[in-house]
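for the recovery benchmark. tokens below, seq after
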């Protein structure tokens, strides 16, 4: 069956801004020995095989070698504590790449799945700042970057990214991550945000 979901996304990694992985199509090395990133997604509207998933939030917690396209990613999944067992199963199938769509493009890069954890989450997006808290595991906030007096934030266009081909550039204003053995939290590190729209079958 066809599935679809759309909403908003933001990420923060441990790279110095702007993360080379983001604008190079994952082909240039990160600014540190490992690239550690949390990609957060909030679904405004969505259904998977007839199961409604609107209003739920999920995240990918990722640890990769410096050149992301080389693969061998370590990935853990955080799922909204309010999701039912049926919603968890359907989201898990999508995020594993079994149902096609953008998540399937990441599947060949994953070398180790670290597990799935369901926990309370709060997700906020006020247009310029993006915040999420996953229990005691992740507290993350980024702010869109504005160049001088410009009224619109800096954006990267025509990028290769599962969320969107246009990303708004941001930087961390407060991040602490301790999930699946992946730890980081640098103020001023690289961030990005965008609307996302996924579908598959």
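predicted aa per position
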């Amino acid at each position: 069956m066809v599935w679809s979901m759309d909403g908003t996304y933001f990420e923060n990694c441990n790279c110095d801004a702007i993360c080379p992985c983001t604008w190079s199509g994952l082909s240039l090395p990160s600014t540190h020995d490992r690239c550690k990133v949390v990609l957060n997604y909030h679904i405004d509207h969505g259904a998977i095989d007839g199961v409604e998933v609107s209003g739920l939030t999920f995240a990918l917690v990722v640890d990769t070698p410096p050149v992301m396209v080389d693969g061998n990613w370590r990935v853990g999944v955080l799922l909204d504590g309010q999701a039912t067992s049926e919603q968890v199963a359907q989201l898990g199938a999508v995020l594993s790449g079994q149902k096609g769509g953008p998540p399937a493009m990441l599947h060949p890069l994953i070398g180790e799945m670290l597990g799935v954890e369901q926990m309370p989450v709060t997700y906020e997006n006020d247009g310029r700042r993006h915040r999420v808290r996953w229990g005691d595991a992740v507290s993350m906030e980024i702010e869109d970057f504005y160049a001088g007096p410009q009224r619109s934030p800096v954006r990267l266009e025509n990028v290769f990214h599962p969320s969107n081909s246009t990303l708004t550039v941001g930087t961390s204003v407060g991040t602490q991550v301790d999930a699946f053995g992946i730890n980081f939290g640098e103020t001023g590190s690289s961030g990005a945000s965008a609307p996302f729209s996924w579908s598959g079958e």
